[in-house]
Write a structure and sequence with these properties.
Length: 254
């Protein structure tokens, strides 16, 4: 909380839950002033931003964000790991909301890029726009990648490569998140394997070969079995060997 107060001027955060939903309440240290930003946010549904209402209370600025049905990024990855595809999906949502913020003449530096204030529902991320202060968004995103490193699934090569590249590339001065995203997408594209042309498998031919091999084996076994018999008959053959009476057998050989 000290870091959020130092970076954004947020001194207190709370989630108020009721039967009708949940609201994230952020309290800033400065006095509330209704300017162009809050009017734009209250009168327009900016895609990717959480609906917000602002007010002054005891000399402080208070902003309430509708978070019903959503969970914070911090809660989502408290136990779970973050895949490379999930990191890319987050970046895609972030780039989308930056574009929306710019188109409404708002300042991207006012987006709270802290896991406790980024919310997820049904595969889509929503962000808090903080009118009371800001931080350079590229520095803030680099700090967020440190959380990506903590959430990395070190059993998944894609998760490791993605978090490492994100953290390394965002350390560079004037980095481009669009270029980093393109590089990550190319890295995650599976290379087309060289597929060998498979020859058709003829089961009939296989069966024929198997039968021939089986037949040859039987013939070899039969041949071996009859060798002693032929030798025996050859030794005891007499001139009239075709007649059974012409065969002389010594009893000792039986």
């Amino acid at each position: 909380m000290e870091e959020m107060e130092r970076e954004y001027g947020i001194r207190h955060a709370d989630v108020r839950r009721g039967l009708d939903g949940a609201v994230l309440v952020l309290e800033g240290s400065g006095e509330y002033a209704e300017d162009y930003q809050i009017r734009m946010l209250e009168e327009n549904a900016v895609r990717g931003l959480l609906p917000v209402r602002g007010r002054g209370e005891d000399g402080a600025s208070v902003y309430e964000y509708e978070v019903s049905g959503k969970i914070s990024m911090k809660t989502k990855y408290r136990e779970a790991k973050m895949s490379g595809k999930e990191m890319l999906q987050f970046i895609s949502d972030l780039l989308g909301v930056i574009q929306e913020v710019n188109s409404h003449l708002l300042c991207p530096d006012r987006l709270l890029l802290d896991p406790a204030y980024i919310f997820w529902e049904d595969g889509v991320y929503s962000f808090c726009y903080w009118p009371a202060g800001g931080r350079n968004i590229w520095e803030a995103f680099h700090s967020l990648t440190e959380s990506f490193v903590q959430w990395t699934d070190y059993r998944d090569d894609e998760s490791v490569r993605t978090s490492f590249l994100l953290h390394r590339e965002t350390m560079r001065e004037n980095y481009s998140l669009h270029k980093i995203t393109k590089k990550l997408e190319e890295m995650q594209q599976p290379s087309a394997p060289e597929q060998e042309e498979a020859l058709p498998y003829d089961t009939a031919e296989h069966d024929w070969i198997a039968r021939q091999e089986a037949g040859s084996s039987i013939m070899r076994e039969t041949e071996n079995m009859w060798h002693p018999v032929r030798d025996f008959l050859r030794r005891h053959r007499k001139p009239g060997w075709r007649d059974w009476d012409g065969i002389y057998i010594d009893e000792e050989e039986l």
